[in-house]
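Lab manual, section 2.4: Encoding a predicted structure.

Procedure: take the sequence of the chain (158 residues), apply the prediction step described in section 2.3, and record the output as structure tokens. A sample record is shown.
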Amino acid sequence: MDPAEGRRVLVAVDEGDESAHALRWCLANFAARGDTVLLLYVRAPPPTYSVLDATGYMFAEEATAAVEGYSRQVADAVVEKAQKLCALHGKENGQMKVEVKVAVGDARSVICEMVDKLGADVLVMGSHGYGLFKRALLGSVSDYCVRNANCPVLIVKS
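Recorded output:
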């Protein structure tokens, strides 16, 4: 990393309040003038349907298009909110570069892949605060990223 360019701070954003809190915390306490803030939103992959059921296949095409459209709308809304937070912070505290990336796939693996692809120096993400049982049942994106990302990971608790 060239010190003159600043750090590349990857912030994973989603629909949750925890994500917005992590971004606000990052902007107020971690990211500095000259850094590049990389906003990453990962959309779930579209559902797949069996080709064997002809009636389901006909319906699936329309349903898949509707789900895909809604998924894009959600992504646009989340990214827009995150960009507004960055712009507000930039006006108050000096400019920093902001880049937006939207990817499709399993959030855990995509975030770790994008750390490498985007050359992130640090990954910042919120924690949903699941307990031990819920985390074991559902899995935790932040736990996975702590173990698998090729950079330091900063988890911001709500």
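Check your result against the sample. The CA atoms of residues 88 and 109 lie 31 Å apart.
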